[in-house]
Amino acid sequence: MNRDAKSGQEIEFEGNGRGEKPGIREGSAWSRREFLANSAGLAAAGALGGLVADVPLSAREITKRGSATDWPDRAAAPAPGKPLRIIIDTDPGIDDAMAIFLALRSPELKVEAITPVCGNVPLEFTLPNALRLVEIAGRTDVPVAAGASQPLLRRLATASHVHGANGLAGVDFPEPKIKPVRETAPEIIRRIVRENPGEITLVAVGPLTNVALALRADPELAGMIPAITIMGGSLSGGNITPAAEFNLYVDPEAARIVFDANIPLTMVGLDVTHKCLLSEQQIKQLEAANNPVSQAAGKIMRATYERMSKGGEVTVIALHDALAVASLIDPGVITRKNYYVEVETEGEWTAGETLGWDGSRPIRRSAPMETSAPEPPPAEIPYKPNAQVAVGVDPDRLFNLLIPRLTGNAA
Known about the structure:
By secondary structure, this protein is α/β, with parallel strands linked by helices. The protein has helices at residues 32-37, 39-46, 59-62, 94-104, 123-136, 160-163, 185-195, 209-217, 246-250, 252-259, 270-273, 280-288, 292-308, 320-329, 395-407; strands spanning 12-14, 84-90, 109-116, 156-158, 200-204, 228-231, 265-268, 277-279, 316-318, 334-343, 354-357, 387-393.
C-alpha cells in the first residue's frame, strides 16, 4: 500500500548505513542512469545487506526484444486447468497482506515464493510479516526469502504512519515459527525463473529493488520472464508527492531498470487502485467469517479503519495491491492500454513520477542547457510502448472476488 495523501504525515526516512565513498553518490556529473550503468556505481548500488549485483551492464543493454505490442505470445496465460505460477515481491504492509492472502487462497495461482523488500516499513518488519502471513494462511510450503534492506541509491522512505509501526496496522500477531530460506530474494528469483524459463510471472507490489537486483545480476533473466505485474506508478499524479506514487518514489532507480528491461509489464497504478475502496461493511464481513485468514484480515483492516477514520473523513480504504493480484486471476477486472512509461529519477521534486506516453503527441527529452557544448536540438522520440497501463477498473468485480476468497465463501 501507499502513503495516504490525506494523512498530512511526514515521510519517514531510514539512513542507508552503507558508508559510500565520496564521489560515487555525491559530486558526480553522471546522470543516475549512467551511474547505474557504471561498474563502480553498480557495486555501490548492489551492496545492500549482502545483495551484490555483479554485472556492469546498463538496463537498456540487458535485452532489446521489442515493444509491448510484440509480447502477446510471451505473456500468454497458462494452459487451461493449470495455475499461473508467480513470485510475489512485496513490502507487507496492510494491503500487501490482503494481496498475499488473495493469492494464497486462489487456485488459479501457484505462489512459488514470497520475497519481502523494504518499503512501507523496514525489512526488519516486512520479512517477519511475510512469514506470519504464510503461517496464518496455512501455506508454510511457500518459501520466503529476505530481500533488500535499502533502495539502490537513496535513503529509505517508509509509511509506518499508514501501516502502523509493525506494518500490519499495529496488530500484535505472534512471532512467526518458520524461518526465511537461506537464499536472498534476488537469488531465489533468479533460481526459480532459470529453472522454469517462460513460466514464472513476477508480481511486484512494493518498491522494485529486489527485481532490479535480480535483473542486474543476471542479464539473461529478463528474456525468461513471461510477464511482470506491478502495483505502482500513476498517470494522474502521486500519493506521496504531487508527482509520485509511493512504491516508485521509494526506489525510482530500481523502477527504471525494471521498466527498461523489456519484460511484458502491466502497471496497476493509482489511476485505478484509488477506485477500489474497502468499506466498513466489507470489514465486518471479514470479521464475521470463522477462518484464520479472514480473522487476520479483519483485524488488520479494522485497525487501519479506526486509525484513518479518527480525522472524520476516511470511511473507506484503497486496496492497491489486492487489485494487482486480482488482475491475474480475473484479467477483466481492469482495462489496459499500451503506453511508453518513463520513470523520472533526476527531478528534485518529481523523482518516482511515471510519465506515460500513448503516442498521440510528440515527445522529446529536455533541451540541453545553454552552457553545454553545441549539439543538434532534441530529436522526437519514436513511439514504442513498454507497458500496458491499467486505465479502467470494475471495483465490484474485485470485491466479488476478494471477499469470498478471504472469508471462505467462494462458490
